[in-house]
Amino acid sequence: MRVLDRLRTPMRLIVVAAAAATCTPLVAQFNPPGQVFGDVSGDWVVVTHEDTPSYGLGPELGDYAGLPINAAGRQKAESWDADVLSQEARQIQAHPVQYISNNRGPTRILKVLDPMTQAFAAYAFAGSFGRADRIVWMDGRPHPSKFSEHTWDGFSTGVFENGVLVVTTTHMKQGVLWRNGVPLSPYAKLVEHFARHGLYMTVSMWIDDPIYLEAPEMRTYTEMWNGYGNLQYQEPFKAGEEVSNKPLGWVPAWPLGTKHREFAETHGLPFEVTQGGVETEYPEYQLKIQQLMRAEAAAKRSGAAAPNQPGR
Amino acid sequence: MKRLNSMTMMRRLAAIMIAVVASVGYLRAQQTARGEPVQSAVADALRDWGVPLPQPYFRAPEDTRKTGEKPGEIRAGVVPDYDALLDPLVVIPVQGDVYLIGGAGANIAMQVTDEGVLLVDAGDERAGDRVIATWKQYQRRRPLRWVINTSADVDHTGANEKVARSGEGGLNSLTESPAGLSFADQPTAGIFAFETVLTRMGSSKNQTSRATAAWPTDTFVTPTKSFYFGHQPLELIHQAAAHSDGDVMVFFRTADVIAAGDILADDRYPVIEADQGGTIQGVLDGLNALVRLAVAEYNQQGGTRVIPGHGRVCNQSDVVEYRDMVTIVRDRVALLARQGRTLAEIKAARPTLEYDGLYGTNKASTADMFIEAAYREATKSSATGR
């Protein structure tokens, strides 16, 4: 009996050590120093009044205001012809993640657990718009090699930084930044921050693509908890014979040098302010717009050609 | 005394265990904080088994621990250098029994079957040993049987001789000796190509001329050649007058993978070897054939995979993007040429501006070279009334 009493303390220590041996790796894996876990799983829906004109009907042709596009991006957008979506091989083309990361509808975010260990491996985003699904790997795996395929949803990995889910996405297909042909290259990089505040979640998108952008594009939107949401299996896009009279190899495009002026003319804006560029992102550009409008009005009064007409 | 010793031993043992566990936990926490996956036999096994996902996932099961990059190291807007010779080579599963071997010059498609290994292209001569080590690493007991050349270019066929000799196709290739040509003593893997590839390799006047042991052992002259290997039909599709006059695409029907050779090189503008019978129209015909052959799964992704001569694995929608680019630039240059613009004026009009960041960074095929090829064809066809 006395032996057992004397062994009690070491036995306790052994039990504690065994428990620590079991738990420490798991704790270390999912709550490393500096990371605070803030779960985002559940059903969400985007607050749809944000950017509705752009995401609903879509932006007007030639409207690049506020987009930090460079000359290459502008030329690509000007030559983009909406008819291209009538190509047979584009009729079921999904929106790329860099354009519509939240799919603008109900979203269900599931935790993907390893069936053996219950270890948290990934978040699965189920999209409602044509099954715009995504996987965000949370297990620390690297991104694929440069030889690997690019997909509409890209390859995403996430970490928690002070309770905010930070998702980095690469390996996306060539897509659009805006639905009027403003391009993004397949070498763009998307970083999203999912900051949950109770029943709301603020999501910021940071898109860097020096091939078509002068500076990274920044967007935000708000998701709202959708506890009664019941996102069921959604129909993916399937090809239909909507346009069947186009031959293989038909590639519609506006000719080199095209300038889409309708947007500026319809809204009474100087053409230059519709052409985008990093300058047009900032509030102080409003002063320049006023200057350009005054100059244009003065030129019209004098019957001369308006200054600052597009030279690019 | 004995009891006291036992107590002391037990306490020391417990202290050591706590110290070990705490150290391991701390190290793993540091490892995770650095973004490195936790390394343990159990974790490795689980990752290899894969995690069942609740939704479709259009990606090959690549082990990114071996082949991938950390997200922080991927720079936005930078076209990767696909021509760099790598050691070790990158091997990624594409679909079915077909893999892509990258980093050996041109891309190599590798089919691994119970019947043996088949390679589409052998790569750069300097990477030959690594290509041999790679197929031997992946083989299923049976050796390398066939090498198929998609063109005569040295970055595709430079290692023909070395790689073919590492196999046992059952055919004795030709060898050169002072006495003349004779069959080699040892059987090697067979080399299959379109006939003009053999012609060009055999011509002493051509830059693609090669030692006899590197020559194709089998050729064909028909538009297509059927071939059965490893329990699946293969179609060798000749595309006339494309990047050269000997281009072949290899369609693995069961795996649903097409090795396109240099008809598709999605990291650069098309390389048009006009002195070897290449034309932009031929490349476009080849790209349209790829678009017709490939079938995407829903949402225009997945489905048939296309391994380009250079660049990353594609599917139909990537081929469409590339085809559209070639068509648009070709048509722009042709229109400007018809309007009487000189070549210098056409270059100054920047008809490739929006594509230069994607395809104009490779010295093997710059924007100027592509514009010149398009101009040459446009003026030639207008001169001949076509």
User: What can be said about the biggest beta sheet of chain A?
Assistant: 9 strands, mixed, barrel
Q: If helices are DSSP runs of H or I spanning 4 or more residues, what is the number of helices of chain B?
A: 12
Largest β sheet strand count, sense and barrel closure of chain B: 7 strands, mixed
First CA to last CA of chain A: what distance? 94 Å
Question: What report would you give on this structure?
Answer:
The complex is a heterodimer of chains A (312) and B (386). Chain A has 312 residues and is α+β, with helices and mostly antiparallel strands. Chain A has five helices and eleven strands; from the N terminus they run αβααββββββββββαα. Chain A has helices at residues 2-30, 52-55, 71-79, 262-266, 285-302; strands at 42-46, 107-113, 120-127, 134-137, 155-161, 164-170, 175-176, 183-184, 189-197, 200-208, 217-225. A nine-stranded mixed beta barrel of chain A has the order 1-2-3-4-5-6-9-10-11. Chain A has a two-stranded antiparallel sheet with strand order 7-8. In chain B, α9 crosses α12. The longest helix of chain B is centred in the N-terminal third of the chain and has 32 residues, at 2-33. Chain B is built from twelve helices and 15 strands. Helices cover 37% and strands 21% of the residues of chain B. Chain B has helices at 2-33, 41-49, 64-67, 128-138, 154-157, 160-165, 195-202, 280-293, 316-338, 343-348, 353-359, 367-383, and strands at 90-95, 98-102, 108-113, 116-120, 144-148, 174-177, 180-183, 190-194, 218-220, 224-229, 232-239, 247-252, 257-265, 305-310, 314-315. The chains are: A alpha+beta (312), B alpha/beta (386). At the A-B interface, α1, α3, β3 and β5 of A face α1, α2, α3, α8 and β15 of B.
